[in-house]
């Protein structure tokens, strides 16, 4: 391609022609695809992307037609002119620049390899090298499942968040919520809870996330049950004063679903409808999140002292075992707690084996014993006169050889936690 002249030459010399000829060699175009903006784009942004079929070589360089391909399939050939008797303009795509392909509100369906092919007066050139339009889009809607299906306090539960499509890019992380609280420490698809507690009894929500955005969330309610468990146990043993007017025992059982409580005396169920000596009060407690306690039932066994003979307990009755026992629920067996109850009474019938002891000076008297009744068992101490320090502890008073000044009243103090009762013995030290 260029301007050509001819030269004539003989023996005398050489001369160039006055005229020249311009040779214009036309050839089909080589093209490339330019993209704006550069990828990747995000589907959620609904970005407009412009593709340009740019001529890298070809004569002439202006293109009369352009074919656009997506993943090797022909999309459009521009200009697209459809002349009719009513429309001599050729339609909306007839006057457009064929080198420009405008993609509007791009989402993941636009993703792929784009190529173009240009035509000039010399014909169609080769198809360009592909350029990929990368569209980031979020994962498909999440789905959450848990196992095991029966969730029990103190055990474990596993939650798993799944998506059918990871979206693009496929490096997915996860957002987890318990109720409205985001658990920022968990970013994987699996969440293991151990031990299960009251706060587990909640909605759990998971969302899959990649650079393209967030999936639709999935929510699952975890219903946690609790087997019967005692957390206010009865004491193993208790003594009750026979004249007490307010006597009761209380136990509390956590269980979800809620269970009921029965009371037993010496292994036999107390029938409150036919036994006037006792009655029962029951309180249902709501769950306590701070203490991790599920719903619970509190039962109080109350002695109806107005129905007891003389409004008092029988002091001679043997110790009795009282049991608080829960029924089972669907989650676990019943639980129980037992207390041994003894009837207490203060010291009474306290006496000494000898009220007057005569002893010769210098000799030791025979031991004097102190006896009495009471519950708990009595303890004994001996004093000389009421204000003196104890001389002896125990039922027996053993004195050594006595002198005249040892004469006097010796007091036996018999005590338990409910009181003290005294008995006295008089020692008369006689001269030889």
UniProtKB/TrEMBL annotation:
The keyword Ribosomal protein does not apply. One of its GO terms (molecular function) is cell adhesion molecule binding. Pfam families: Ig_2 (PF13895), Ig_3 (PF13927). It comes from the Eukaryota. Residues 29-132, 139-221, 228-340, 347-428 form the Ig-like domain. It is a single-pass type I membrane protein. GO terms for cellular component: cell-cell junction; plasma membrane. One of its GO terms (biological process) is cell-cell adhesion. The keyword Cell membrane does not apply. InterPro entries: Cell_adhesion_signaling, Ig-like_dom, Ig-like_dom_sf, Ig-like_fold, Ig_sub, Ig_sub2. Keywords: Disulfide bond, Glycoprotein, Immunoglobulin domain, Membrane. It is found in: Membrane. This is Ig-like domain-containing protein. It comes from Dendroctonus ponderosae (Mountain pine beetle). The lineage of its organism: Eukaryota, Metazoa, Ecdysozoa, Arthropoda, Hexapoda.
């Amino acid at each position: 391609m260029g301007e050509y002249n001819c030269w004539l030459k003989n023996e005398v010399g050489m001369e160039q022609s006055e005229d020249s000829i311009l040779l214009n060699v036309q050839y089909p175009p080589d093209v490339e695809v330019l993209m704006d903006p550069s990828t990747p784009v995000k589907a959620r942004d609904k970005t407009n992307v412009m593709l340009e079929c740019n001529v890298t070589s070809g004569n002439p360089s202006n293109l009369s037609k352009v074919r656009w391909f997506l993943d090797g399939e022909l999309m459009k050939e521009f200009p697209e002119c459809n002349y009719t008797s009513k429309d001599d303009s050729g339609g909306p795509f007839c006057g457009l620049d064929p080198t420009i392909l405008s993609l509007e509100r791009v989402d993941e369906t636009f993703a792929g390899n784009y190529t173009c092919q240009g035509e000039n007066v010399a014909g169609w050139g080769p198809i360009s090298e592909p350029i990929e339009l990368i569209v980031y889009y979020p994962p498909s809607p999440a789905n959450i499942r848990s196992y095991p299906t029966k969730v029990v306090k103190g055990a474990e539960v596993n939650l798993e968040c799944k998506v059918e499509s990871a979206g693009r890019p496929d490096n997915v992380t996860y957002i987890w919520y318990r109720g409205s609280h985001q658990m920022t420490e968990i970013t994987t698809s699996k969440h293991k809870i151990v031990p299960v507690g009251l706060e587990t009894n909640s909605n759990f929500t998971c969302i899959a996330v990649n650079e393209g955005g967030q999936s639709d969330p999935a929510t699952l309610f975890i219903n946690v049950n609790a087997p019967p468990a005692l957390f206010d146990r009865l004491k193993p043993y208790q003594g009750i004063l026979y004249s007490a007017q307010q006597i009761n025992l209380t136990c509390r059982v956590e269980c979800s679903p809620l269970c009921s409580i029965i009371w037993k005396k010496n292994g036999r169920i107390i029938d409150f409808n036919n036994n006037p000596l006792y009655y029962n009060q029951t309180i249902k407690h709501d769950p306590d999140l701070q203490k991790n306690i599920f719903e619970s039932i509190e039962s109080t066994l109350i002695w109806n002292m107005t129905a007891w003979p003389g409004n008092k307990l029988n002091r001679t009755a043997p110790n009795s075992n009282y049991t608080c026992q829960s029924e089972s629920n669907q989650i676990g067996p019943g639980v129980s707690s037992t207390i041994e109850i003894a009837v207490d009474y203060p010291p009474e019938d306290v006496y000494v084996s000898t009220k007057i002891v005569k002893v010769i000076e210098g000799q030791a008297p025979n031991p004097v014993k102190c006896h009495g009744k009471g519950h708990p068992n009595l303890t004994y101490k001996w004093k000389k006169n009421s204000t003196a320090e104890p001389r002896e502890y125990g039922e027996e008073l053993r004195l050594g050889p006595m002198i005249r000044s040892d004469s006097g009243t010796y007091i036996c103090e018999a005590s338990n936690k409910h009181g003290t009762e005294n008995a006295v013995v008089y020692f008369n030290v006689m001269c030889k």
